[in-house]
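Input chain follows. Return structure tokens only.
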Amino acid sequence: MTEDIGSLEARIAAFDGPISRWQAARERAFTAKFNPKEGNLSTLMARLPPAAAAAAGVGPGPEEEVFALLDEICDAYVRADARRCALVRAVIHQHEVRRLLGEYVGHCARLLEKGGRPQWLDRALAGASIEDQRVDYRDWLMSLGDVYVAARTAGIDPSPALKRIGALSNAEGHRATPTPTSAALSGFEQSAYFATSILPRLR
């Protein structure tokens, strides 16, 4: 049975506070080691690794619980119709869970490459569909490329899943991206990025 959208939103909203506090702690730790207002470019670049380590040292926060919820959401997403998927995207983008979608897609790609279960491909692509290129479409494309290569490494043809989940995705463009997510997923293998950046990794 499909979960009522109001009940789903309540479960998603429960993570707003924990994610906000965790992200704020990570940002404070990073900034304490990396002050962009002081030093030249080489000095700033040298500060990046310790600053990133300081942020990581804050700990995983609610990531494990959020990823478990996203597993559930993405499993239902790939079985839903386009209307339901649009509702799910709208709800998630109103809450802090959206901030972890990029990390979730990367997490799924790593597990896909290690274990080869097609479920991780579906989850990764569903996460990318939900994220909808809202942060940076270039980072989104790179992440999608990692998912594609992980699938091929695991011996899985990602083409059918790209088209299937592309059909569930946002078909309307928005200011953050030149290509709607539906077309970007369905046509990924025909894109210039695929030709220049992904094909060489498959040879």
